Amino acid sequence: MELQRVLGNRRTIRFYLPHRPVERSKVQKMLEAARRASCVGNVNSAKAVVIWKDQSSSELIKAITPPLGYQQMQTAPCFILWYHDKAAYEINKWIGNLLDLVDQRRIGDDPELTKQVIDQNLRAAFSATWEQSAVAPLAFMDLGQAIAQATMMAWDLGLSTCCMSTPRLEQIGKLLNLPDTAVPVCLMSVGYPAESWEAGGQTRKAPFTDLFSEMKCGTPFEEDPQVVEELKRDGLVQEPAPLPWRDDELKYVRHALNLEARVVAPQFQQPAPAGGQEAPAEGS
To answer: Vertex 228, ends 222 and 230: CA angle to 5°?
Structure first.
Protein backbone atom coordinates (compact mmCIF):
# COMPACT_ATOMS: atom_id res chain seq x y z
CA MET A 1 0.00 0.00 0.00
CA GLU A 2 1.27 3.49 -0.80
CA LEU A 3 2.49 5.48 2.19
CA GLN A 4 -0.10 8.24 1.85
CA ARG A 5 -2.95 5.73 1.94
CA VAL A 6 -1.36 3.93 4.90
CA LEU A 7 -1.25 7.25 6.77
CA GLY A 8 -4.80 8.05 5.73
CA ASN A 9 -6.18 4.63 6.66
CA ARG A 10 -4.61 4.53 10.11
CA ARG A 11 -7.10 4.85 12.94
CA THR A 12 -6.91 4.74 16.70
CA ILE A 13 -8.79 1.54 17.57
CA ARG A 14 -10.44 0.97 20.95
CA PHE A 15 -12.29 -2.32 20.36
CA TYR A 16 -10.23 -5.49 19.84
CA LEU A 17 -10.88 -9.19 19.34
CA PRO A 18 -10.10 -10.53 22.82
CA HIS A 19 -10.05 -14.15 21.63
CA ARG A 20 -7.37 -13.53 19.00
CA PRO A 21 -3.85 -13.31 20.45
CA VAL A 22 -1.20 -11.05 18.97
CA GLU A 23 1.71 -12.95 17.49
CA ARG A 24 5.02 -12.40 19.28
CA SER A 25 6.73 -12.04 15.91
CA LYS A 26 4.52 -9.08 15.02
CA VAL A 27 5.29 -7.33 18.30
CA GLN A 28 8.99 -7.90 17.60
CA LYS A 29 8.55 -6.19 14.24
CA MET A 30 6.84 -3.23 15.93
CA LEU A 31 9.73 -2.92 18.38
CA GLU A 32 12.26 -3.16 15.56
CA ALA A 33 10.47 -0.36 13.72
CA ALA A 34 10.71 1.74 16.90
CA ARG A 35 14.41 0.90 17.28
CA ARG A 36 15.06 2.19 13.75
CA ALA A 37 13.56 5.62 14.44
CA SER A 38 15.74 8.71 14.30
CA CYS A 39 17.09 9.93 17.64
CA VAL A 40 19.46 12.58 18.96
CA GLY A 41 23.07 11.46 18.75
CA ASN A 42 21.90 7.86 18.38
CA VAL A 43 21.45 7.69 22.17
CA ASN A 44 18.53 5.23 21.91
CA SER A 45 16.58 6.51 24.89
CA ALA A 46 13.25 5.10 23.70
CA LYS A 47 12.47 1.85 25.51
CA ALA A 48 9.46 -0.34 26.18
CA VAL A 49 8.07 -3.23 28.21
CA VAL A 50 5.65 -5.61 26.46
CA ILE A 51 2.77 -6.74 28.67
CA TRP A 52 0.73 -9.84 27.77
CA LYS A 53 -2.64 -9.57 29.43
CA ASP A 54 -3.07 -13.32 30.00
CA GLN A 55 0.24 -13.41 31.90
CA SER A 56 -0.38 -10.29 34.00
CA SER A 57 -1.55 -9.96 37.57
CA SER A 58 -4.76 -8.14 38.34
CA GLU A 59 -2.65 -5.59 40.22
CA LEU A 60 -0.66 -4.78 37.11
CA ILE A 61 -3.71 -4.52 34.87
CA LYS A 62 -5.38 -2.20 37.38
CA ALA A 63 -2.23 -0.08 37.61
CA ILE A 64 -1.87 0.42 33.87
CA THR A 65 -5.57 1.12 33.30
CA PRO A 66 -6.11 4.79 32.36
CA PRO A 67 -9.39 6.63 32.97
CA LEU A 68 -10.45 6.52 29.31
CA GLY A 69 -9.45 2.94 28.79
CA TYR A 70 -12.46 0.74 29.48
CA GLN A 71 -12.87 -0.78 26.01
CA GLN A 72 -9.14 -1.12 25.39
CA MET A 73 -8.33 -2.70 28.72
CA GLN A 74 -11.26 -5.13 28.46
CA THR A 75 -10.47 -6.37 24.96
CA ALA A 76 -6.79 -5.89 24.03
CA PRO A 77 -4.59 -8.97 24.54
CA CYS A 78 -1.34 -7.00 24.56
CA PHE A 79 -0.03 -3.69 25.88
CA ILE A 80 3.27 -1.87 25.47
CA LEU A 81 4.51 0.53 28.13
CA TRP A 82 6.78 3.03 26.38
CA TYR A 83 9.27 4.95 28.48
CA HIS A 84 12.15 7.38 28.08
CA ASP A 85 15.40 6.41 29.80
CA LYS A 86 17.38 9.43 31.01
CA ALA A 87 20.46 7.24 31.49
CA ALA A 88 20.87 7.09 27.71
CA TYR A 89 22.18 10.66 27.88
CA GLU A 90 24.90 9.98 30.46
CA ILE A 91 27.93 11.86 29.18
CA ASN A 92 30.31 8.95 28.55
CA LYS A 93 27.61 6.92 26.84
CA TRP A 94 26.49 9.91 24.76
CA ILE A 95 30.04 10.65 23.61
CA GLY A 96 30.54 6.96 22.86
CA ASN A 97 27.41 6.96 20.68
CA LEU A 98 28.69 9.98 18.76
CA LEU A 99 32.08 8.39 18.21
CA ASP A 100 30.34 5.26 16.96
CA LEU A 101 28.43 7.39 14.46
CA VAL A 102 31.78 8.65 13.20
CA ASP A 103 32.98 5.05 12.76
CA GLN A 104 29.80 4.34 10.80
CA ARG A 105 30.55 7.40 8.61
CA ARG A 106 27.24 8.94 9.60
CA ILE A 107 28.69 12.29 10.80
CA GLY A 108 31.72 14.20 9.58
CA ASP A 109 33.79 13.55 6.49
CA ASP A 110 37.18 13.21 8.23
CA PRO A 111 36.89 10.51 10.94
CA GLU A 112 39.97 11.45 12.96
CA LEU A 113 39.26 15.18 12.90
CA THR A 114 35.62 14.62 13.78
CA LYS A 115 36.53 12.41 16.75
CA GLN A 116 39.00 15.06 17.94
CA VAL A 117 36.32 17.75 17.84
CA ILE A 118 33.89 15.51 19.74
CA ASP A 119 36.41 14.67 22.45
CA GLN A 120 37.90 18.13 22.86
CA ASN A 121 34.88 20.35 22.33
CA LEU A 122 31.59 18.49 22.65
CA ARG A 123 32.58 16.41 25.68
CA ALA A 124 33.15 19.52 27.79
CA ALA A 125 29.95 21.19 26.63
CA PHE A 126 27.81 18.06 27.01
CA SER A 127 29.30 17.26 30.44
CA ALA A 128 27.70 20.40 31.80
CA THR A 129 24.33 19.92 30.13
CA TRP A 130 23.62 16.21 29.65
CA GLU A 131 21.25 15.98 32.61
CA GLN A 132 19.17 18.86 31.24
CA SER A 133 19.31 17.36 27.75
CA ALA A 134 17.99 14.07 29.14
CA VAL A 135 14.68 15.71 30.01
CA ALA A 136 14.51 18.30 27.23
CA PRO A 137 11.60 18.30 24.75
CA LEU A 138 13.83 16.96 21.99
CA ALA A 139 14.58 13.85 24.04
CA PHE A 140 10.90 13.02 24.41
CA MET A 141 10.31 13.75 20.74
CA ASP A 142 12.59 10.80 20.00
CA LEU A 143 10.28 8.52 21.95
CA GLY A 144 7.34 9.93 20.01
CA GLN A 145 9.04 9.10 16.72
CA ALA A 146 9.72 5.56 17.90
CA ILE A 147 6.09 5.08 18.94
CA ALA A 148 4.90 6.48 15.61
CA GLN A 149 6.99 3.99 13.66
CA ALA A 150 5.76 1.12 15.83
CA THR A 151 2.20 2.32 15.20
CA MET A 152 2.64 2.29 11.45
CA MET A 153 4.30 -1.14 11.54
CA ALA A 154 1.37 -2.49 13.54
CA TRP A 155 -1.06 -1.14 10.98
CA ASP A 156 0.95 -2.65 8.13
CA LEU A 157 0.78 -6.04 9.91
CA GLY A 158 -3.01 -5.95 10.29
CA LEU A 159 -2.90 -4.92 13.94
CA SER A 160 -4.39 -1.84 15.54
CA THR A 161 -3.28 0.32 18.44
CA CYS A 162 -4.38 3.03 20.83
CA CYS A 163 -2.02 5.26 22.82
CA MET A 164 -3.23 6.06 26.32
CA SER A 165 -2.05 7.96 29.36
CA THR A 166 -0.40 6.26 32.32
CA PRO A 167 -1.86 7.73 35.54
CA ARG A 168 0.02 5.65 38.11
CA LEU A 169 3.59 6.11 36.92
CA GLU A 170 5.36 5.33 40.20
CA GLN A 171 3.32 2.18 40.84
CA ILE A 172 3.77 0.96 37.26
CA GLY A 173 7.52 1.53 37.51
CA LYS A 174 7.76 -0.69 40.58
CA LEU A 175 5.58 -3.44 39.13
CA LEU A 176 7.58 -3.54 35.90
CA ASN A 177 10.96 -3.14 37.61
CA LEU A 178 11.77 0.04 35.68
CA PRO A 179 15.03 1.79 36.58
CA ASP A 180 15.00 5.06 38.51
CA THR A 181 16.03 6.83 35.31
CA ALA A 182 12.87 5.70 33.49
CA VAL A 183 10.12 8.18 32.61
CA PRO A 184 6.96 6.24 31.61
CA VAL A 185 5.19 8.20 28.90
CA CYS A 186 2.61 6.13 27.07
CA LEU A 187 0.66 2.89 27.31
CA MET A 188 -0.25 1.38 23.95
CA SER A 189 -2.96 -1.24 23.51
CA VAL A 190 -2.31 -3.69 20.67
CA GLY A 191 -4.63 -6.20 19.05
CA TYR A 192 -6.72 -7.24 16.09
CA PRO A 193 -9.58 -4.79 15.56
CA ALA A 194 -13.14 -5.78 16.35
CA GLU A 195 -14.38 -2.70 14.53
CA SER A 196 -13.92 -1.95 10.86
CA TRP A 197 -10.70 -0.26 9.78
CA GLU A 198 -12.66 2.92 8.90
CA ALA A 199 -13.73 3.12 12.57
CA GLY A 200 -16.52 5.43 11.53
CA GLY A 201 -14.42 7.75 9.40
CA GLN A 202 -11.26 9.81 9.63
CA THR A 203 -10.99 11.80 12.86
CA ARG A 204 -11.53 15.51 12.37
CA LYS A 205 -8.50 17.62 13.24
CA ALA A 206 -8.00 21.32 13.94
CA PRO A 207 -8.00 23.52 10.84
CA PHE A 208 -4.74 23.38 8.87
CA THR A 209 -4.08 27.11 9.14
CA ASP A 210 -4.65 27.06 12.91
CA LEU A 211 -1.75 24.64 13.30
CA PHE A 212 0.84 25.72 10.75
CA SER A 213 2.46 29.09 10.12
CA GLU A 214 4.87 30.46 7.52
CA MET A 215 7.89 32.65 8.31
CA LYS A 216 6.46 33.70 11.68
CA CYS A 217 3.90 32.42 14.14
CA GLY A 218 0.44 33.69 13.36
CA THR A 219 0.98 33.98 9.63
CA PRO A 220 -0.98 30.97 8.37
CA PHE A 221 0.56 28.51 5.94
CA GLU A 222 -2.23 28.70 3.39
CA GLU A 223 -3.49 25.48 1.85
CA ASP A 224 -3.48 24.98 -1.90
CA PRO A 225 -6.90 23.52 -2.83
CA GLN A 226 -5.29 21.53 -5.64
CA VAL A 227 -2.94 19.85 -3.18
CA VAL A 228 -5.89 19.01 -0.93
CA GLU A 229 -7.60 17.31 -3.87
CA GLU A 230 -4.41 15.36 -4.63
CA LEU A 231 -4.26 14.19 -1.01
CA LYS A 232 -7.88 13.04 -1.21
CA ARG A 233 -7.13 11.15 -4.42
CA ASP A 234 -4.08 9.45 -2.86
CA GLY A 235 -5.94 8.49 0.31
CA LEU A 236 -4.29 10.67 2.95
CA VAL A 237 -7.40 12.82 3.38
CA GLN A 238 -10.58 10.76 3.73
CA GLU A 239 -14.24 11.07 4.67
CA PRO A 240 -14.49 12.62 8.15
CA ALA A 241 -16.18 10.95 11.09
CA PRO A 242 -18.85 10.06 11.87
CA LEU A 243 -19.94 8.03 8.86
CA PRO A 244 -23.70 7.32 8.74
CA TRP A 245 -23.44 3.74 9.99
CA ARG A 246 -21.08 4.40 12.91
CA ASP A 247 -23.68 4.36 15.69
CA ASP A 248 -24.99 0.99 14.53
CA GLU A 249 -21.46 -0.39 14.37
CA LEU A 250 -20.70 0.70 17.91
CA LYS A 251 -23.88 -0.94 19.20
CA TYR A 252 -23.03 -4.14 17.35
CA VAL A 253 -19.44 -4.25 18.60
CA ARG A 254 -20.43 -3.55 22.20
CA HIS A 255 -23.05 -6.31 22.08
CA ALA A 256 -20.69 -8.80 20.37
CA LEU A 257 -17.97 -8.19 22.96
CA ASN A 258 -20.43 -8.12 25.88
CA LEU A 259 -19.20 -4.73 27.05
CA GLU A 260 -20.98 -2.31 29.31
CA ALA A 261 -22.05 1.03 27.86
CA ARG A 262 -19.28 2.93 29.56
CA VAL A 263 -16.18 4.89 28.61
CA VAL A 264 -14.46 5.43 31.96
CA ALA A 265 -12.75 2.46 33.59
CA PRO A 266 -14.62 1.21 36.71
CA GLN A 267 -12.05 2.39 39.26
CA PHE A 268 -12.30 5.93 37.88
CA GLN A 269 -16.05 6.30 38.42
CA GLN A 270 -17.14 9.44 40.19
CA PRO A 271 -18.22 8.94 43.81
CA ALA A 272 -21.92 8.45 44.44
CA PRO A 273 -23.83 11.70 44.91
CA ALA A 274 -25.56 12.62 48.13
CA GLY A 275 -28.50 10.34 48.80
CA GLY A 276 -26.61 7.14 48.05
CA GLN A 277 -27.53 6.69 44.41
CA GLU A 278 -24.56 5.59 42.34
CA ALA A 279 -23.38 8.08 39.71
CA PRO A 280 -23.87 6.75 36.17
CA ALA A 281 -20.77 5.74 34.20
CA GLU A 282 -19.87 7.98 31.30
CA GLY A 283 -21.45 6.79 28.07
CA SER A 284 -24.23 4.81 29.75
So the answer is: 140
CB 22 within 8 A of CB 54: no
24-35 and 137-156 helices, crossing angle to 10°: 140
Residue-wise pLDDT tens digits, 135-160:
999 999 999 999 999 999 999 999 99
Helix (H) or strand (E) holding 228: helix 225-234
Quote the radius of gyration of the chain (alpha carbons, Å): 22
Grouping H, G, I as helix, E, B as strand and the rest as coil, residue 12 is strand
Alpha helices for 157-279 (secondary structure H) = 169-175, 208-211, 225-234, 246-256
> How does pLDDT run across 74-126, given as a tens digit for each residue?
999 999 999 999 999 999 999 999 999 999 999 999 999 999 999 999 999 99
Contacts of 60 (CB under 8 A, 6+ apart): 51, 175, 176
Domain count, the chain: 1
Q: Which amino acid is at 181?
A: T
What pTM was computed for the model? 0.91
Cβ atoms of 192 and 160 within 8 Å: the answer is yes
Residue 229, domain extent: 205-239
Q: State whether residue 186 is helix, strand or coil.
A: strand
Residue 152 lies in a domain: no
In degrees and rounded to multiples of 5, residue 152 shows phi and psi of -70, -35
Q: Residue 174 domain-assigned?
A: no
Residue 160 and residue 16 in contact, taking contact as beta carbons nearer than 8 Å: yes
